[in-house]
Amino acid sequence: MTEMTLQVVSFLVENKPGVLFKVSNLFRRRGYNIQGITVGTIEGTGLSRMTVTVEADSRVLNQILEQLDKMVEVVKVKRLDPIRAVSRELLLVKLRTADPMARQEVLGYINAYHGLILDVEPDILIAEVTGAPEEIDEFLRDIRPIGVEEMSRTGATALERGTMKLA
Amino acid sequence: MPEMTGAEAYVKALEIEGVEYIFGVTGAAIMPICDELLKSNIRYVGGAHEQGSAHMADGYARASGRVGVVQATSGPGATNIVTGMATAQLDSSPVVAFTGQVPKGMVGTDAFQEVDIIGVTASVTKHNIQVMEAAEVPHAVKAAFYIASTGRRGAVLVDLPKDVQTDKAEMVFPEKVEFRGYHPNIEPSPNEIHWAATLLAKARRPVIIAGGGVIASGASQELVSLAEMIQAPVAHSLMGKGSMPSDHPLSLGLCGMHGRYEANKIVPEADVLLIVGARLSDRTTGSIDGFAPNARIIHIDLDRSEIDKNVDSITRVVGDAKLALRGIMEKIALQKINGNRDETIIKKIEEFRAQTSELRSDSPLPGPEVIRAIRRAMPRDSIAVTDVGQHQMWAAQHYDVYGPGTFFTSGGLGTMGWGTPAAIGAKAARGDLPVLNISGDGSFAMTENNLAIAVDEGFPITIVILNNHMLGMVAQWQRLFYDHRYSAVNRPIHPDFAKLAESYGAEGVYVDSIQGLEAALRRAVGSDYTTVIDVPIDPEENVYPMVPPGMGLKDILLGDD
């Protein structure tokens, strides 16, 4: 009941100015701790989908769902069951590769995680890795000792499996 | 489609909504609208300060059951209504605010008198919108009234840049508006009704707590009928005062921190506790563990997010209180009410009630006696509002009310200074009834400039100030929890409130006896002018009963020792 776990909440909002502000303001003022948030428009609908990853126990999770649902601009809201959903995140990472050994190792890991190399310069490269958030965590654990120069994670976006849909 | 300016469309849209009054203060960014209002029959009541105007709109809304409208200019005008919006929002009062804004092209440049009022009020409104095209004005006005007045009611703000007011457009006035994410009319589910009814019918010691939702939904009659049907005593939250007549045998009165003895003793005894339209704030529950430890809780609320927010329920009914209570009564009528009822708590109501009413005090003019004297002098059919502090709690405990819509107070936000302007708004709504503000010296001084509006605009009200030259409730806490260390609670003995009232063109009276108070009050409510009655009370007197913060309802204190 009171155990804090990472939860993924997916919701559709009206694609209007200020809605992202109101959503994040709601999370701030109620003290909900956002781990990640992604937003993208859904073409032809006037809606955007937001995916928020948040640490919450069941009471807080329930409040997040109800408080979001109360917002006039929020059309539909749902907690995604991790077993019933696919969740992906994109990572861009800048890696030092001056040392030939390091270069080999880096290329090996990028390959193992099905990553892409987006840019190469003499001593540095930029790679892209997508995957479930835990996979991104693992990739970073593996590669960090070799030399991460800079990185940017998008936060998770997610969809429910099967025929269920939000809209 | 007629072409008109945003300001013309605004006034027409308000007329379509049937607006009688706009309360507000003018200023540069709202002048096109103010000018346009000269052509309308809507009465524009100019204020002394926008906070007062917002509270007037709130008082009007509560007393009329309709939307109250406040209007302010940009910048400081807009920020001055923030307290009023928060007060209305927390007490679910339908208030719509319209603020002027700098012209669209200057938004975001920190122009003169620019403030991001959408950002500022996002946390204290049910909804807010900035209108960026003149053609959108009719829809925005309709939407604001619709959202403020439906579902769980609340405060809505519409921000209108100055050029949106002056630009011309072809205007369409929609008959209704819809939002994909807003569906306020919730029918209680038969299943939920069934479970609630079954639990209540089987209860041995059922108790009800009624909140402001009972009054908002007009469910007082249903509440009384259900209570009588199952013989359940009824306590109320501060906002629920008036949901059941104080002189009803099953009425327990106020529950919570300064609740009456009978309420706080009986609520924790419940085996089934029905909550109707109350959000169970800390001031109502005391410590959650001591609130209703053995009760199975049924929670009826129109706002689903209030259920299980603070207190876990075993079953819920989401929807309008009136429909829910009717449904429950129909279901109970088909069942057998528990023959094995425990009548002991019912039998104790009278005894506990006497313990609240007979609390002794050494003060020459004890607060509770002042409140009871006020009640004796006020006509049965009248409206009382309060400010915030000791006088408010004494009024909540001892000012008997006989029906919904006759007692209003700033419950959720606890806004000192709310009473006087709210009384003016209530008088605007109910010119046929005497309107009284029960106030304190600290609260009254915060918005006393509204006396000018009461007098000049012809809204005669009566104000009784329980004057201890103290911020009395804070002083009480400093006596009880800070070892008598007074910090920033002593108030100057100036002004002389009677003389102050006279300078505003009102009647000012100083009385220092119960008889004098009753006589002055009878004169005041029988007259057609505004009266301020200044009553000295004991600065050392505490409000009892009291449940110390963090304690359970049963840990109720009846006095200093």
Give the gist of this structure.
The complex is a heterodimer of chains A (167) and B (561). By secondary structure, chain A is an alpha+beta fold.
Element string of chain A (H = helix, E = strand): EHEEHEEHEEHEE
Rounded to an integer in angstroms, the radius of gyration calculated over CA atoms of chain A is: 19 Å
Number of helices of chain B: 23
**What about the largest sheet of chain A?**
5 strands, antiparallel
First-residue to last-residue Cα separation of chain A: 30 Å
Contiguous uncertain segments of 5+ residues of chain B:
none
Largest interface: pair, residues per side? A-B, 22 and 17 residues
Helical coverage of chain B, percent range: 25-40%
CATH first level of the largest domain in chain B: which class?
Alpha Beta
CATH topology of the largest domain in chain A: Alpha-Beta Plaits
Question: Poorly predicted ranges of chain A (pLDDT <50, ≥5 residues)?
Answer: none
Query: What is the radius of gyration of chain B computed over CA atoms, rounded to a whole number of angstroms?
Result: 24 Å
Shape of chain A: elongated
| Annotation field: number of helices of chain A | 4
- Reported CATH architecture of the largest domain in chain B: 3-Layer(aba) Sandwich
Question: What's the name of the CATH homologous superfamily of the largest domain in chain B?
Answer: Thiamin diphosphate (ThDP)-binding fold, Pyr/PP domains
Number of domains of chain A: 2
